Amino acid sequence: MEPFALLAVSLLLGALIFFISAAVTGSRRAVPQDSNGSTVNEEDSKVSNGESDRNTASKKQKLQRPRKEKLQQHVFAHPLLATSLKSHSGNVSCLDFSSNGKYLASCADDRTVRIWSTKDFLEHDHRCVRANVELDHATHVCFSPDSRAFITWLANEETIRVFKMTKKDDGSFTFTAASEDFPKKHKAPIVNIGIAETGKFIMSASNDTTILIWDLKGELLATINTNQMNNAYATVSPCGRFVASCGFTPDVKVWEVCFTKSGTFREVMRAFDLKGHSAGIYSFAFSNDSRRMATVSKDGTWKLWDTDVEYKQQQDPYLLYTMKCNVSDPCRIALSPDARVVAISSGFSITVHNAKTGKQEEEFLNVHGEEIADLAFDINSRFLVSCGDRAIRIFHNVVGYRAVIEEMEGRLKKATNEAMRERLQQQVDDAQSALEAVCTKKE
Prior knowledge:
By secondary structure, this protein is an alpha+beta fold. Strands 1-28-27-26 form a 4-stranded antiparallel β-sheet, with no helix packed on it. A 4-stranded antiparallel β-sheet has the order 2-3-4-5, with no helix packed on it. Strand 2 and strand 3 form a beta hairpin.
């Protein structure tokens, strides 16, 4: 029995050793190894695979990154819209026509000033010259009397910078900044700047009560305290003699900037006031000869004034009429150079009135996607322009054409000689042709 017992025990031990050996070999095969034969932990493998997946996904996202969506341009259409100038990439804040009528200057928060050719307004392509405002942007722009330079107000530097025209080798021209800016003097945000048509002085006005008068080299000539609690608007008259401002008080104050016969600055002298509104005044405007002024107020009215007076003889301006209007801040008023048309902007819309009757004849609603920042007529009273968003809207001044026809036909009836009748008839015919051309084109 003993041999059989030993054999059975041997077989049992052999089987046990076989099963243990098989189990150990199987567990080694189940453990993953790297390329060097090292053992790799299963959790590490999962993490490693996750990082790989994320890296792959990140690369795909970079490859498939969507492009920046362009801001949608505000869409506006009207039968009297001549064109829209759309080269600016930022909101346009100020417009100014050159005194020779050839150019329109515009500035925007895209750090550029653009000079447009007015003869291209009715063309398909609108040419312009771009002047870059380095490391800043202009909030206001104004042409020099000779149209060969312009000044800007810098938003960040808070001062005036002069740009002068320079001619390139190919015959084209560009504008380059002067080497030095004007000294910083204002202590509050600017409401407007201007250059006298005489070329004798520059004006800057801030929204406290300060107006500064400068010479063309940046030397301070005089400081005016308007005593209006705040300045809402200020400007230089087109004749170059006067500076005026309006604000919290219900009047417009006008000063004459006086020079000697040799051109030396003498003094700033109070000229006259426009009194009659019952609340603060938003804005005002001069006609080209400064014989008419228009004002618009918080009291819900606008007024037209005869300012062709002997103010040195204590003669006050005459109020021609008062008209009601529905306006709110921001609000601007523009008077055509020939004093035949008044335009008022309030918020996003514009109304256009006959200056002789005060009657509203046209209305443009939702002209811009932002509130209207500036409003102006060109020097020939052919166009009305506005800005607020990235586009500059240019309208045909049909109210002006109608006013010319009506006025000239009235004079024609009273004409006493043939030469005068021919001249008046020619003016009527020109205005009618212009009006018919606008109407025909839009139909």
